[in-house]
Amino acid sequence: MRNLAAGKFAAVVLGLSLSAAALAADAESGKKIFVQCSVCHATDGRNGTGPGLGGLLGRKAGTAPGFRYSRAMKASEIIWNETTLDAYMAAPQKVVPGNVMPFSGVPDAAARKDLISYLATLK
Asked: What's the CA dihedral at 28, 106, 51, 25 to 10 degrees?
């Protein structure tokens, strides 16, 4: 949780269908965690310092219209889903070396699960 407050979190979500694990997560808790992310990310299609995160589950990384992504993110070939988001939220620079999001990650697996559950509700 402390890393969330210290960093600016960029979560991108891809939501076609939720797995049983995502359904078991707490979207309301994830919404509270997302407050830290909202410094840079909107929950709709608007871009800010970071890309808007509405409708991101199922989307290819680096493709939100109107946002200027790093070369690393555009070249990543990642499709955002529960697995890729969890890995990225845990260690953004490990998953996409050279990305420019100044965030060290969310170390708590339960917090990541809740955050992904919340992001999956954004259309």
From this structure: -30
Distances (CA, A) of 63 to 66, 73, 74: 9, 9, 7
**The domain 2-119 is classified under which CATH number: 1.10.760.10, 3.40.50.2300, 3.50.7.10, 3.40.630.30?**
1.10.760.10
Nearest to 122, CA basis, from 30, 24, 37, 53: 53
Q: What percent of the chain has pLDDT over 90?
A: 77
pLDDT of 52 higher than 90? yes
The rounded distance, in Å, linking the Cα atoms of 68 and 27 is 29
pLDDT score of 41: 96
Confidence at residue 45, expressed as pLDDT on a 0 to 100 scale: 80
Pick from 108, 96, 8: which is nearest to 60 by CA? 96
How many helices and strands in the chain, by DSSP H and E? 7, 0
Could you tell me the pTM of the whole model?
A: 0.78
State residue 24's pLDDT score.
59
Which segments within the chain are labelled E, that is strand? none
